[in-house]
Specification:
Elements (H helix, E strand, L loop, with lengths): L17 H19 L3 H16 L2 H12 L6 H26 L8 E4 L5 E6 L3 H6 L4 E6 L22 E5 L7 H11 L4 E5 L8 H7 L1 H5 L3 E4 L3 H8 L6 E5 L2 H8 L3 H6 L8 E4 L4 E5 L6 H16 L9 E7 L5 H13 L11 H11 L4 E2 L11 E3 L9 H4 L6 E7 L5 H15 L5 E5 L2 H7 L1 H9 L4 E4 L4 H6 L3 E2 L17 E2 L7 E7 L17 H14 L5 H9 L2
Parallel strand pairs: 4-5, 4-7, 5-6, 7-8, 9-10, 9-14, 10-13, 12-13, 14-15, 15-18
Antiparallel strand pairs: 1-2, 2-3, 3-18, 11-12, 16-17
Helix pairs in contact: 2-4, 2-7, 3-4, 4-6, 4-20, 12-13, 16-18, 20-21
Length: 563
């Protein structure tokens, strides 16, 4: 079968020459110490200019993204580029402006201290407008145990104790918001000037990033370069680059740090620069059983499908493993609704390189796959792998698919919800690869019946981002929450990476971020892939984030309720 007629992608951009990279780094080198002397007031002005320029590019930015990913204008998928990419960058800029106006110590709505002494900071909602944006949604940042609540450490350090640095940010190819947000974090939270290397997959956004962040580029605090692995290798090793941040795969990380598997085994680093990283995850969706109504079953089936389908499943936080109790009386009905909604989800272009090969590797492991559509040159069909064994080393539990598949595994020994939750938490921690993010679905009645045992289960989860009744991608999108792996990975066993980004409240020593939502949300949440009005809602959301005005609420509400 021939592939659907997807739009032609943008033309490839010329590779930045070594000479031009050298020149860019020399310009940054001259300004890296001067950046430390730029006052918070001046930084606010620079970011306000960036926000203004960003807003002039909205339609062009999203249009290019749609071409790059083969998305039809006006479709729900176009809306994803507004909600999941462009508006998040706008929000990130606005939040950083707020943080700098507070001299690196923006107000935290409230805190609580667990019995074990661990401090938990409530970071969402911060104000009335955020309460309106996502009604009854809350978010927390959990600090590392025995750490106090402090903020903006770089703004508390005396100037004479600091030295300027150049950070290399290696951008991701799947989401246009990743590179700009990582750049903002390195510049305004870690106080480093940045050379941003675009990923070849979405390098088409580079010229728009240049235009949006003109104020920083003209000041020689930021530079953008293009190219593949050769460019990446050259700039990683460059003498003028002081630190590195990568969003990508653990394999790319190891290639930078170790050079080869042999060097890794010997413990011989080839690149000794400080490196932070966000490297993906086999993201579990943990289902806590309950007496769900037909409406609840259908809603959460749509929810699961949306976590799989967003961005054609080319997300590090895409739902990849559905963890269910084998003896739950509603399990088969739930799976029937998931299959129904996934089958009726429009096909997406498999735009990310290597998708077909990764899909073939999964099919080889699981010949009983349920394929919901036709495969073609540019399409990986939505596919379910039922009855994946819940055992150590299982392929689907340890391999990031990064394509349109969903593995389903079942846990034995279900007695009651609390007992199951504790077993499922241990299973996710011990047998599913990665610690970046996960989602838990639990009805309000069951959660209430657990009392403090529920909070203890959250405490046990070794994930950097946790969504309770909400896709973990929302942890990424709020920006006041932190984004990164659970702390503790070594360079020798990097898994989901080290360090964090986002963190717009500049909280020091974070362990994890948790977002909570009601079991049923109305209107349809903006991360649902069947939202009927997502492009228009995305535009309204972007204006809302940029203006931070009550006057933007009616338009946002109107478009939200049309979903």
């Amino acid at each position: 079968m021939a592939s659907p007629n997807f739009p032609e992608p943008p033309r490839a951009l010329p590779t930045t020459s070594n000479e031009d990279i050298d020149n860019a780094l020399h310009r940054l080198h001259k300004k890296k110490d001067a950046w430390l002397d730029v006052s918070t007031e001046k930084r606010v002005v620079l970011l306000q200019e960036c926000l203004k320029d960003m807003m002039t590019l909205s339609e062009e930015w999203v249009s290019q993204s749609c071409k790059g990913k083969g998305l039809e204008k006006g479709s729900v998928a176009e809306g994803e580029e507004w909600v999941g990419s462009f508006s998040i960058v706008v929000r990130g800029i606005q939040l950083m402006i707020d943080a700098l106006k507070a001299n690196g110590q923006p107000e935290i709505p409230s805190t609580r201290t667990r019995v074990d002494g661990q401090i938990v900071a409530e970071v969402y909602p911060r104000n009335f407008l955020e309460k309106v944006l996502l009604a009854n949604v809350t978010a927390e940042v959990w600090l590392e145990k025995e750490k106090p609540l402090t903020q903006g450490s770089i703004y508390r350090v005396a100037r004479e104790q600091q030295s300027g640095k150049i950070a290399l940010v290696l951008g991701a190819g799947n989401q246009g918001s990743i590179g700009p947000l990582d750049m903002l974090y390195k510049m305004f939270v870690e106080n480093e000037v940045v050379i941003l290397k675009m990923n070849p997959v979405n390098e088409y956004l580079g010229p728009y990033i240049v235009r949006a962040f003109r104020a920083l580029i003209e000041g020689n605090y930021l530079s953008v370069i293009y190219g593949g692995a050769d460019v990446g290798k050259y700039v990683c090793a460059h003498d003028l680059v002081d630190t590195i941040h990568i969003t990508g795969s653990c394999h790319t990380h190891d290639a930078i740090v170790w050079g080869s598997e042999e060097n890794k085994e010997k413990g011989e680093r080839q690149n000794t620069k400080p490196i932070s990283s966000e490297l993906g995850c086999v993201t579990p969706m943990l289902i806590v059983p309950g007496d769900w109504s037909a409406a609840e079953l259908d809603y959460q089936a749509r929810h699961v499908v949306s976590m799989v389908a967003h961005n054609a499943s080319f997300n590090c936080n895409a739902g990849k493993v559905l963890v269910l109790p084998k003896d739950w009386n509603l399990r088969e009905k739930f799976m029937e609704r998931i299959q129904h909604h996934l089958k009726n989800t429009p096909v997406r272009k498999a735009y990310y390189p290597g998708a077909q090969g990764r899909y073939d590797a999964f099919l080889k492991q699981y010949p009983n796959a349920v394929t919901l559509g036709e495969r073609s040159e540019n399409v990986v069909p939505w596919t379910i792998f039922p009855d994946v064994p819940a055992k150590e080393g299982e392929y689907a539990l340890n391999t990031e698919a990064f394509c349109a598949v969903l593995a389903v595994t079942h846990l034995d020994g279900y007695t009651d919800a609390t007992d199951y939750l504790n077993k499922a938490v241990d299973f996710c921690n011990e047998h599913i690869w990665g610690t970046l993010s996960m989602t838990m679905l639990i009805d309000d009645r069951t959660r209430k019946s657990m009392g403090g045992a529920f909070d203890d289960a959250i405490a046990k989860l070794k994930y950097g981002g946790i969504g309770v009744n909400v896709w973990a991608g929302v942890v990424y999108g709020l920006v006041t929450t932190t984004w990164g792996a659970h702390p503790g990975h070594t360079l020798e066993d990097i898994r989901s990476g080290r360090g964090i980004v986002h963190n717009a409240l500049l909280i020091d020593h974070p362990e994890k971020s948790v977002v909570y939502a009601p079991f049923l949300m109305k209107p349809t949440p903006p991360w649902f892939c069947d939202h009927k009005n997502l492009p228009n809602m995305g535009r309204a959301l972007t204006n809302f984030e940029a203006s931070q005005s009550i006057l933007s609420v009616p338009r946002l509400a109107f478009n939200a309720f049309k979903g």
